[in-house]
Structures are given as C-alpha cells and as structure tokens.
Amino acid sequence: MRCLRILPLLLLLLVTACDKPKPEPLQVGDHAITILFPKDWEHVSYGDRHQFRRDMNRISLEDMGRLGRLDLALEKAMVKLREDGRRENAWRDTLQINGRDARLVQTWDHVSHQYPKRYLFVENNNSLLVVYTQSGQFEAMEAAFTELTASLAFADSLRAGSDRDQPE
Amino acid sequence: MGRARCVFLVLVFVLACTSQEKKAREEPLLPAETFNWSPAVPLTFQPPPAQWERQKHNEGGLLGIWFTHKGSVGERIYVSEYYKTGRRLLLAQNRWPSSIDDVVEETRFSTEGWPVPADSFVVEPMLPDTVAGLPAYRLDFTLNLPERTLVGREYYFLKKDHLFEAAYLGLPVNLPLFERVVDSITFASPGGP
C-alpha cells in the first residue's frame, strides 16, 4: 500500500530524469565537443561551422583553425568574423574550460555601445574554437548562448591527419 | 463642489510636476561608459536612465549618441563630437594653437535647418562655462511651438583639439537630468585642453 502511495512521485522523478536534456556530441571542424542543444533552436551543420537558429537569431560554433597564441588568435579571428573598426570590445574575461584557456568577449558598436555580440574563444590543441552570437537580437540569444557555453565540454583528441594551416 | 474639484485638480497637477522634477534631480543615471569616437580622446559619461532610448548620432559632422525620452514629447539628450574640427586640426599638425574660442562657432546652435520658422526660437547669448574642468560655452534657447514650449541647452567644449557638444531639447522639468549627465562627463586621457 505504501509503495502505491509513492508511485506517482517515482513516476514524476522518472519523467523529470528522462526529460532532462543531455549534452550531445558535435564535431566542429577539428574540435570534438559535447554541448546542450538549446531547446527550440534549429541545428544546422556546415561541417567546420554549426549554427543554431531561432527566428532571425543565429548562434554559431566555428573552427577558426590554427591562428597562433590565444590572445593574438582571437584578434585575428574577430577580424575574420567582421568585427571591424566600427566595433570594439565592451569587456573581456579570462576563463578555463576543461583545462583549456578561454576568453569570453563582448563587443558593441563603438559609437553608441548598442548591438552587443558575445564570443567564447577556446584554445584546444593549438586550434581555436569560437562560439558566438552571429546575428539577431542579443537579448533573445543571451540565455541560449550562456546555457550552450556552460555545457561545452571537449572530447580528448582532435581528428587525426588534420591538414590545417600552420600558425602564421 | 465645482470649486473643490478644481482645487483638487490643481493639487494633483502640482504634485505631478513636483514628482517629475524630483525624479529628474534624483533618478540614478546609468553606470559610466567610455566612448572612443576619437580613440585619442576617450570621453566618459553616465547615460540617462533606461527610459531614455539611445541611438547612434551621425549627421551634420557630429558623431555620437542621442537619447530619446520614451513616451514623452520627443525630448532628447545628445553627446557628440564635431569630428570635422578634430580631423582638420590633426591634418594641420598643430600649426596654430587652438582653443574653444577658435572653433566654437563651427558647431554653435543655429536656427537654420529646423522644420519650424526661425522666429519660433528665442536664443540667448552664448556664455562661458566649464565642462569636465575644461573651458566651455553654454547656449540656452527656447523653442515655442503651438502645442508647447521646449527648452534647449547646448555645451561646447574642446579636448586636445577635439570639439564636443552636449545638448538638450525637451521639457524644462528634465533639464536637471541633462545637467547631471553633463556633470558626469570626464576624459580618461590626462592633460588640459
């Protein structure tokens, strides 16, 4: 009788456990990672680049390749990602992800300090992975970006036989 | 009864005005931000509260931002650089000394170019003042529109050959808020004008 009484609670726990999203493996160029896919965002794979879309909002993960040491590499990467002279850094944080050096950078329009974009750069086996709010309304992407980057973890090895460019 | 209602309405009006004025004097500004419109002369100030919506300002040789008071009558606060002066003086490589007196006319308020007749404005003489500890000029004007009267105030100040302008156009009640924004202006780079 007592077992029957706690049955609904057990069922609820089971459903909750089943419902809990699990990180999924993803190969972003040379980077083997696992992340939580943001709920209700469409996932599109371009190989070296993956994108999550919702309405007009885009969050991308991209393998930027070997661009040198992290701080220099991220400057080069930001030029490639069209962070030109019209934008500037609002702030930058240093952090570690799975023992790897990382930088969290937020940029904005240099005149008005509007239109923020956020980037997470991680140096992984001398190669640069970036997760960033590519386009859309930042406020509508911030929570998904935070959730996605908080769940980011690396598998231990890069793909063998990489033919990427050497550091400049 | 009619008289009592009238007194009540006047009281409500007076209370509303007082509360608005108090808000303009006391409502906290946003945290200070540094703007690198000219990287050699970063300008820092505290923007007005969030109900003043910001926009990029890039017209007539002015580069900066303006803040529009949401839900109001088009009240605006501007903080901008008149970049043509800085560029010209940079090209001239300090061939002549520049002071605010030499350049202030370049961006000084004019009644031209407004979508209202020039005689809608009453413009006061420009007066010497101080912004961020630098010599400045202040110009006050009144804009008399059929529906209401707006007040305008502009400050012009020069830092290292870069001419800046802080301006307000709006209801008299929010002029103290603008004054607090102007009081918050500082320059990160050391040195005088």
Explain the overall architecture.
The complex is a heterodimer of chains A (168) and B (193). By secondary structure, chain A is an alpha+beta fold. Chain A is globular. The N and C termini of chain A lie far apart (72 Å). Helices cover 25% and strands 36% of the residues of chain B. Chain B has 193 residues and is an alpha+beta fold.
Write the layout of secondary structure elements.
The complex is a heterodimer of chains A (168) and B (193).
Chain A: H1 2-19, E1 24-28, E2 31-35, E3 42-45, E4 49-54, E5 57-65, H2 70-80, E6 87-97, E7 100-109, E8 117-124, E9 127-135, H3 138-150, E10 153-154
Chain B: H1 2-26, E1 33-35, E2 43-45, E3 52-59, E4 62-69, E5 76-82, H2 83-92, H3 100-103, E6 121-123, E7 127-131, E8 134-144, E9 149-159, E10 162-170, H4 175-183, E11 186-187
Antiparallel strand pairs in B: 1-2, 2-11, 3-4, 4-5, 5-10, 6-8, 7-8, 8-9, 9-10
Shape of chain A: globular
Write the element-wise H/E pattern of chain A from the N-terminal end onward: HEEEEEHEEEEHE
How many distinct helices of chain B? 4
- Structural class of chain A, by secondary structure, is alpha+beta
- Beta percentage of chain B is 35-45%
- Report the radius of gyration of chain B as a whole number of Å: 19 Å
Amount of helix of chain A: 25-40%
Mean pLDDT of chain A: 86
Mean of the pLDDT scores of chain B?
88
